[in-house]
Each structure stands twice: as structure tokens, then as C-alpha cells.
Amino acid sequence: HSAQKAIESMRPYETRLNRIMGTFVSTIDGDISSPYATERSVERVALVVFTSNSSLCGAFNSNVTKEMRNTIARYKENGIEVVAVYPLGRKGLEAARKLGRQPQDFSQLLDRPAYAPSAEIAQQLMDQFARGDIDRVELIYHHFKSAGSQVLTKEQFLQIGRAHV
User: How far apart, in whole angstroms, are the C-alpha atoms of residue 111 and residue 17?
Assistant: First the structure.
């Protein structure tokens, strides 16, 4: 219950911050000069997949892992390589391993959420993007609406641009 209230209390800030960023980015003339806004053809992708550590979550986990599999298959059909999967949650880790991937285990972040390890993952992805090792980073997760309703969401994290915000 307390986690639900914390999430619900953050929603107005999230909405407002997205609106501010959208307005800011749309008012910039010309190109955005940032290594994270560099447009290039997409050949290598990283996926960040959020699931739970428990199997008692039914469709919550299965919908995310199914979307991960479908996304990897769509990219493969188009000749795009998914070079890395970052599973945050044991069920995403297990699904990635079933696909023959050997991702790092980040499931401890769900047991003990903390800013520093989360920021390290984001920094790794940003560094890889800036070096050109990956051309896109996508997040797959459930967006919390209420205790009974979460919306499966796939969102681009990098490359940042007007369409992203």
C-alpha cells in the first residue's frame, strides 16, 4: 500500500517534468548538441526489461517477457542486432537466459532499490551509446496506473530527441 501511494504521489511530477522537457526541446532551434541526441541508423540495440523477482505476478511478468521476445525477433527480421539485455527482475533474467543470452543479474535492485546502482546502469548505457557501441536503448516495463491496472510500455531511452520527449 505504501509503495502504491508513493508511486501515485510521483505521477504529477512525472507528468509535469515530461511536459517541461517536451516544451524545452521543442523550442530549441536547430540540432540538439549532445552525444545522446545523435541520430544514426539503428544497427545495434540494448533492451532494459523490468519484471518482478517473483512468479506470483501472472501476466505482469509474462507480458513483459513476451514483448522482449517479440522485440528481439522484430529487430532480427530487420537485420538489427539486440546486443544486450539488461533485466531488472529475476523473471526477465530467466527469460533472457532461455533465449541464450548471458545478461548480468540486476534482480537485487528490486529487493533493495537504490539510486547509485540504477545510475550506474544508466551510465553504462549512455557510455555505450556515446561510443557508438549501441544505436538505441529501449525500456520494456509496466506503467503503473492503479493496483489493478498496469499498462505494458515500450519506450525509447536513447537516442534523445524531439520525438522522444
Answer: 27
Q: Which of 97, 40, 100, 45 is nearest to 75 (CA)?
A: 45
pTM metric for this prediction: 0.80
Which set of grid coordinates corresponds to residue 55? Answer: 512468479
Residue 5 and residue 2: Cα distance in Å, rounded?
A: 5
3-class SS string, the chain? CHHHHHHHHHHHHHHHHHHHHHHHHHHCCCCCCCCCCCCCCCCEEEEEEECCCCCCCCHHHHHHHHHHHHHHHHHHHCCCEEEEEEEECHHHHHHHHHCCCCCCCCCHHHHCCCHHHHHHHHHHHHHHHHHCCCCEEEEEEEEEEECCEEEEEEEEEECCCCCCC
Q: pLDDT tens, position by position, for the chain (165 residues)?
A: 565 666 566 667 767 776 776 666 666 666 556 787 778 899 999 999 999 888 766 688 899 999 999 999 999 999 999 999 999 989 999 999 999 998 988 888 888 888 888 889 999 999 999 999 999 999 998 887 766 777 888 988 888 764 433
